[in-house]
Amino acid sequence: MNKLILIALFFTGLACAQITPEFEIGAKGVFSGNLNLNSDESSAVSDFSDTQLLMGLRQKLYNDWRAQFVLGLQFPDANSNLGEVFYNNIFIQLEDRTNIVKVGRTLAQTNLNEFPTLRDDDAQRFTYALNPFSDGVNTERDQYANVLEYTRIFKQRFFVSVHGENFYDSIEPDDFRLNSMGLTLMYRVPESQQWNRNVVQEVGLSYNNYFTDRPGYTDDFDASVKNLLFSTTINLKPDPINFIDFRFQAIQNFGWDEVSVLNDYFDYTRTESTALFGTFRYLRQKLERPHFQLAFGGGYKALPNLAIDSDQLLFIANGFYRLGENFDVGLQYRYADNKGFTEDLFGKSEHRVQLAIVYSFSRIFNKQFGDREDLLNLEHNYIR
User: Are 87 and 71 in contact (CB under 8 A)?
Assistant: First the structure.
C-alpha cells in the first residue's frame, strides 16, 4: 500500500512539474561617466540611466499556444519627470509557431533597427518616429507605448505585424485611447541562425499613423501625422572572426505643411522631416566569443518646410571591450550640431564623451521552450 502511495505521489509530482511555469530573469547595468561640452556650458555627470531588471513567466496552454507575462523596470534619465523607476515592460503575450498576440506596455514599433550605440536613445531624434503627443521631456515617451499587436510569421523569417498604440499624451496624460495605428513588414534571420552571418540580416518597412488633432481638418486620416520607416542590416564581411556589418534606417515624417516655425517640441514632431542614420561595426571574435567591437556612424535630419534653413547632424564613434562573460567596458564620443530653428530647441552643438561599464545577465529556470529571443532582446544590446 505504501508503495502505491509513493508511486502516486511520484507521478503527481511529475504532473505538477509539467504545469509549473518557466521563469526567466534578466538584468542590465549601464553605468557611465559623461563629459558634456556644449556651446553654452559644460558639465560632467555620473549616469546609470537605462539600467533595468526584467522578469518573465511562460506557461504552456491546453493547445499549441503558450502564454508569457513580462514585467520590467528601468531607471530613466535623471532629468526626466518619470520618478526613480519607470515600468518599461508590462505585457501579456500569446504565441504559437506562426502567430504572436501582445497586449500591454512595451517598445513600440517606432524603430526597426538596433544600432551599436551605448544607449538606444543616443541617436533618438534620428532613429525613432517621434511621438507627436509628447513634450519631449522624456525619451521613453517616444520608445514605449501601451500596445495591442498581432504578428503573423511566415517561414520563420517574414513578419507581418498590425499594431495599435496608446502613446503618452503630455496634454491629456489620462487619455488611454489608441492614438496610433500601423503596419510593419519585416524579413529577419532567426536568432538561432545568425551564426551563419547571411549577407542580408534583415530588411524592414513600417508605417505609423498618429491620430492628431490638426486644426481645420475633420477627417482622421488627413489630420494625422504619418511616418514611413525603412531599415536594413547588411553583413559586409560575414567572417566568423573578423565580422563587419552596416546598419541603416530612413524615416520620412510627412508632417503638416502649415508648420513652418518651431515654437516647441510639438511643432518639431509635426513638421515634415527626413531622417537618415547609418553605422559601420567591426566585431572581433576570439575562441568563438566576442572579444571587442568598434563602431562609427552618423545621421542627418532635414526639415524642409521651415521658414529658415534648419537641419541636424550627428556623429557617433565608440568601442567596447569584453572583460568577462557579458561584462563590457566602453568609450563613446558623440557630436551633435543643430542649425536654424532646431538650434533654438536643442542648442547649437554638443560634444559628449562617455566612459562606460555595462553588465548583462539572463537566466532561465525550469526551461521548457525553445526561444525566438530572450528577455534581454526586448531591449538594447551591445556586443553580440
Answer: yes
CA distance 81 to 103: 25
Please list the residues that pair with 328 across neighbouring strands: 322, 358
Does the pLDDT of residue 109 top 80, yes or no? yes
DSSP characters over 242-307: EEEEEEEEEEEE---TT--S-SSHHHHHHS-EEEEEEEEEEEEEETTEEEEEEEEEEEEEE-TTSS
Neighbours of 61 (CB within 10 A): 10
- Minimum mean pLDDT among 186-190, 194-198, 263-267, 330-334: which range? 194-198
Residues near 10 by beta carbon (within 8 Å), at least 6 away in sequence: none
Is 24-379 in CATH node 2.40.50.180? no
For residue 11, name the pLDDT band (cuts at 50, 70, 90): very low
Distance separating alpha carbons of residues 120 and 332, to the nearest angstrom: 13
Spell out the residues 6+ positions from residue 41 whose beta carbon is closer than 8 angstroms to its own: none
C-alpha–C-alpha distance, residues 185 and 168, integer Å: 25
User: Of 312, 215, 307, whose CA–CA distance to 262 is shortest?
Assistant: 307
Query: What is the C-alpha to C-alpha distance for residues 376 and 382, in angstroms, rounded to an integer?
Result: 11
Backbone φ and ψ of 342, nearest 5°: -65, -25
